[in-house]
Amino acid sequence: MNRKENEDIRVLALGDGDYSRRKNRRKKLRVAAELLMLAILAFALYSLFYSLKTYEPYDHKAVAEGDKDTGFVALSYFGVDHIGDTSTLIGQEQLHKHLRELKRQGFVTITQQDIKEYYEQGKPLPEKSLFLMFEDGRRDTAIFAQPVLEDLNFKASIMSYGENLETMDMKFLKPSELTELENSTFWEQGTNGYRLEYINVFDRYDNYLGEIDPLRYAVLTPCLGRRYNHYLMDYIRDEHGVPKESYGHMTRRISYDYERLRDIYEENFGKVPSAYVHMHGNTGKFANNNAVSDVNEKWIRELFPMAFNREGYCFNQRNSSLYDLTRMQPQPYWPINHLLMRIKYDINTPIEFYDGGDKRLDRWNLLEGAQELEKETYTLTTLPEGEALAELRDTGSLRDVKISVSLLGNSFGAQQIYLRSDAKRENYLCVELINNEMLVLEKSGGLRRELYREKIPVILGEKIPSVEEDRREVESQENMAFARYATSREQAEEYYGRAKDREKMPAASVEEGAEPYQHVQSFHRRGSHKLKIDLKGDRLTVLLDGKEGPKDLAVGDTGQGSIYLGASWQGEAWSQRNLADDVYDAVFEKLVVTSNTARKDEKEKVLFTTELSGTEKMLFCLQEAWEKLLFWFLKNA
Asked: In terms of DSSP bridges, do strands 428-434 and 437-444 run parallel, antiparallel, or are they unpaired?
């Protein structure tokens, strides 16, 4: 058929009424579909940049007057990102879990005005009141926390530094963006002060570093101990602790920060925020030095109706001052029960722990602490300064066993696996990772004895630095950090030269007889180790990350007994950035317990596992792969 014949057929078809109606119907459907797609796209774009919901405050009329002072809980998150794989920023999903559980248990958010009226006018607060804060005024916090607040109908205060409102650093929210957040009704403004800076800084070898800004601090954190202070907390001092400034200079220096803060916020918003977080308090005053404290107190009372002057505990009542409020800073790695445990013992009010709702928990008999089973991870959370313990049911007759598990709890603390244990734990064999060491303990007739102890780096074949080697590394890294952020080329070259000279200096190794370096563990330090236990008869073999720990270790008790999992808080940990935590989480991932018949031709029987199977396993693996891919792009983009 030629072109002319085709044209003739189409011309004839125009006279066909049915054909025309079908064609017009298809056109209308296509146009309707296109308009629908455009509407969906427009809605998605609008939702991305504008809130479609409005915060609904709690019913003030429903709060009864009474003699009981229920107080309020104050939580302050450092910041939020999508994944949460950092030491300070919590992931969006984990934040949602934290706050969703608090809402389920009856917590409602209160505002700065509610707190003022609670203290100044004696107005009551809801029984479970939550004052929620996010610090540092980060842009990613606003992006990822906003949907969480909208979903839960929670309101929060976004704290910011006055200095960051004027910089070009795009990590931090600018005035117009803060105004948009307030207009969304889910946020109100607060402030951390004018600047974040550190003074009187010493490294862990007591080398004086002086004053450093947040960029240098982030690089130097692994080199520091606890000898440093925040900008408003003390006189600026030399290496001998002698003030480098007079009283008048100190007063002008600190007053300048408050004056700049006042001017910046008034210029951009017409007012200074009501809530102030004093960085970094916990002194019992407003600074480490009385004269400095007096200057801070004068300005704080002049500029702000309230101040959070303490950190660690979360509970505030009328017996505390509006200028001495306390807040708790949840860490990104906290499971839900860690947060609930801390709140429960701060407010001394019954709180229901979260177990994840998994039917496999029926196999566990929780004896102490709190437990959660979610996907392939079983978590035990200790009591404050205490322990957690759970028994795997129907294992009382076990004698020989194999266990495979990944232990993901922090390095400082104890994650324990008890074997052949009686009901009273008077007799057992215990394999534990504790404070970066592996221990094997045996208890018989109530008497404990240590069968094996070794540092985890030694088991893994890692090089143990000497004190001399570590000091050389620390001092070289410090000079490199100062070179990186030097204010001139000459200064950078000077520090770089010092770093290279320090690297060339000799330092005796442990192998040469020098003292090994033993750094005090921080409770924030994450851990991740694959553990395999093979117990048969009177012999025990343990593999850690594929490396041999105790091999064919002789054990005395060869009787039967149950499997217990345990966790224990250890009180010698420390933290650079806040008060030490007194709750610990043992995290057991992909736990598999099998029989141990030692028959090569027979597959061992799986007695218990947290590993998923079938469709659940496939979906879980796909989700894990997606999250790893997303994290890679976020990290390397």
From this structure: antiparallel
